[in-house]
Structure formats: structure tokens, C-alpha cells
Amino acid sequence: MRFQVSLLCLCCLMLGGHSQAQDRASLLRSNDRSGRCQYTFTVASPEESSCPGASSAGPEMQGVMSRLTLLEATVSRMVEDTGAPALKDEEGLQEAYSQIMGEKSELQRDKEQLNRQVQELQKRVDLLSREAETLKLKPCQQIPGSSGRAQHEPNQTPASDPAYTNAAFQEMKAEVTEVPASRLINEGAHNFTGCGELVSVGDPVVHRKADSITGKYGVWLQDPEPQGNLYTNRTVWRIDTVGKDVRQLFAYEDMEQFSRGFPMKVLVLPEAVESTGATLYRGSLYYQRRRSRTLIRYDLAAEGLAARLDLPHAGFQGQHPYSWGGYTDIDLAVDEQGLWAIYSTAMAKGAIVISHLDPESLQVRNTWETNIRKNTVGNAFMACGRLYTVASYTSPNTTINHMFDTATSESRFLHVPFKNKYRYNSMVDYNHARRKLYAWDNFHMITYDVRLGRVSS
Ligand code: CA
């Protein structure tokens, strides 16, 4: 290509030169010595009158040679001027091309490496899937000393409890079947008044804060089914249970007077109260007598003892308390189905036992043994014949974590959020008339709204 350009330029220049010197050029034709025809093209020099040192080649030839040399030099310069940038561009392109090809090779290598990694990961996923399938087919094994621990908060399981390390003790032996949320028909608290399963617990609402140390924990309630005219379902009852000889029962006309701290009456009980398990039902206060398994029914209107009876085999004085302690061995509860006792026995090895009691005589009508260890939960209450346990008495955000249904004798894990706003919840009791939980959380007397739902068949 370079050669063609040179030749073209040379021709142009020669033609140009020819036109300028046309008037001085001539063409001769003659025979040479051998008889062949010889053409001679003669161009006169524009400047030189003679050709020094050109005697052998002839003046015309010397002139042509000289001009050709000049032309060649000129063409050479022109070619150099016009060709160099193109060459530089070409070299640049070549360099860029090489670089791109190098990068392409590098990317290709990266791609291959990533493909290998993907294949490795796919193999691991397949392996783990197979392991998961194998584990699903295996039955659950009870590991002594660790059964059910994951369900509870770590500081609530006393490792020193011999019952805990008993391999025969199966805390969660019942089949665990979660009820899908879609099966619960959530009717809400306003339009569903029938019995159902617990759907949610609202935020705590404070009604009163105790103003002395005796009010750190205690019991406060309203009677869901009051009797007589003396006290109504608006009457609020309160017992501060800190102390060795707790006998004072405060009555408040209504929630407003309660919140202001103005009792209308103070009743003195015939026997000292143990801990925070007391409850109210149909005009009577039910409570555990101090340092005993004796249950007391105190008639509020008559202000006297109406019944007393030992709860058979019930542990007391710290044998089977809730996780916070406080001699909470026997917890009395009321729901739509009547009066209940939540406790444990030596035979049950610390598992929660539920007894349905005759509210008149305190006789046990029926008893269920659950698989929920009493000292691993913060508290418990009954609603619609079902026991519910609060996982922690101190965690600000804990859960209602178990449900035991007395109708079917089956228990189930739950995960209904529950708040211990003041970090020391010593009492939780259900009031079915108001569909609320009453609780005493570190000097604070609070309620929680409760929502129940029907379980679809
Ligand atoms: Ca309770």
C-alpha cells in the first residue's frame, strides 16, 4: 500500500513537472549503431547551463537523475508525513486489541472458576437436603438433661434439680403440632364472646402503682361473677403479699377509687395468705394458707371462713414454685368453666398438675398432669378450660409458650407475645367477664386485653 501511494505521488509530480517544463522538453527518435530504434526524451535544466562531471552519462540524463532524486526525496517526506499517524493509530489499535483479548481470557478464567464453585455448592445443597430428609424420617430422641431446654430461657432451668436429669422424665412427650394461623378464626375481643383459643395479649395498662415495699408483689382482682348486693363486678380487691403474716384484703368501690388509692374497706382474713395465687369467684376469696397445702374459701359478704381443705399431694413452701420463686406453689385460677388449682406434686416430678375444684367445698373434681415443668415458666392462667403458661416473669418481651387443653389432655407449644414491662411479674390471672389478664408487675397493677379465637374444624 505504501508502495502504491509512493508511485502515485511520483507520477503526479512527474506529470506536474512535465507541464512546467513542457515548452523546454523534446523527444528524439533515431537508430542506434546496431540499427534498433532509440527514443530520447530531453528536458532542459531550468537553472544550470551545463552538466559538470556528466560527460559519461550525458547532460540530459544527469538532469533527469538529479530531478528524480529530488522528487524521491520529496515523495519520501510526504509519505512519511501522511503515513506516520496512520501507523501510530494502527499500533494503538493493535495494542488495545491485545489488551482486550487479554481481559477476555481473564474473564473466561473467572467464569470457569465460578462455574466450578456453583457446582460445588450445588453438591453441598444436595447433600444437606438428603441429610434433612434422613433426619425427618428418624424419631425424636430424648436426651437426658436437655429435654425441652431450648423452649425456656436459660436462667429459668435449675440444673441442680434431680428431676431435671431424670431420663424417664419427658417434659414434652405430647405431640407438638402447631396450629397454622389460618386455622384460627380471629373474631376479635369485641364481637367474639364465646370460648376459644388465645390469639393475642395486648400491651400492659397500668391502673395503680404501689407506694411502699409491701407492694412489690401481690394479688389484685375483680370478681367475674359477683353474688349478692354488697359487692359488684366493679369492686376491686387487692392483697399486698410481701410479709410474713399477710391478712389484709383491701376493697375499692371501683377502678377509679383503686387508681386513686382510696379503699372503701379493709377485711382481715382468718388465716395468713401464702404468695400470689389467690383468686375471686362468686363472692368468695380463694387462697392458699401460709406454709401449708390448705385451701381457704373466704366469704366476702359474710366476712368469714366458708371452707378449708388440703389440696392432695400439692407441693408447697418452695417445692414447686414458678421460676421467680416466692412460694408460688399453688396458683388458684378461675375461667368460664369454674375454679382451678395449678400446682405440682412429688409424683408429677415438678410437672404442672391441674385440678378442677368444687367452688363450694374445694373438693377436687378432676385432675390432669401436664408435661410442662412448673419451675420453667413464669406464671400460668386458665381460659376456657385451657392452661396457658408465661415463659418468663422478667423478660420485657416474652411469650405465652404452652397451652394444655383439659378437654383433650393435649399440650402444644405456643408463641403469643407477652410483655413484662416492669421486669418482675409475680401474678397473672384471667378474668373471663372482662376478657382481660390481671397482673402485678414490680409494684405495678396492670391489665392486658386478651383476644380469643375459634378454631375451625
Ligand atoms: Ca396465675
Question: What secondary-structure arrangement, pairings included, does this model have?
Answer:
Blueprint: H1 2-20, E1 25-31, E2 37-43, H2 59-137, E3 184-185, H3 188-191, E4 197-201, E5 205-209, E6 218-221, E7 236-240, E8 248-252, H4 255-260, E9 265-268, E10 279-281, E11 284-288, E12 294-299, E13 304-310, E14 331-335, E15 338-343, E16 351-357, E17 364-373, E18 379-383, E19 386-390, E20 397-405, E21 410-419, E22 425-431, E23 436-441, E24 444-455
Antiparallel strand pairs: 1-2, 3-24, 4-24, 5-24, 6-7, 7-8, 8-9, 10-11, 11-12, 12-13, 14-15, 15-16, 16-17, 18-19, 19-20, 20-21, 22-23, 23-24
Helix pairs in contact: 1-2
This protein binds calcium ion.
Residues 331, 333, 379-381, 427-429 line the site of calcium ion (CA).
Structural write-up:
This protein has 457 residues and is α+β, with helices and mostly antiparallel strands. It has three domains: 36 residues, no CATH class; 51 residues, no CATH class; 256 residues, Beta Barrel (Lipocalin). The protein contains four helices and 24 strands. Helix 1 packs antiparallel against helix 2. The two termini are 93 Å apart. Calcium ion (CA) binds next to strand 14, strand 18 and strand 22.
Feature tags:
alpha+beta; Lipocalin; six-stranded antiparallel sheet; rod-shaped; disordered N terminus; binds calcium ion
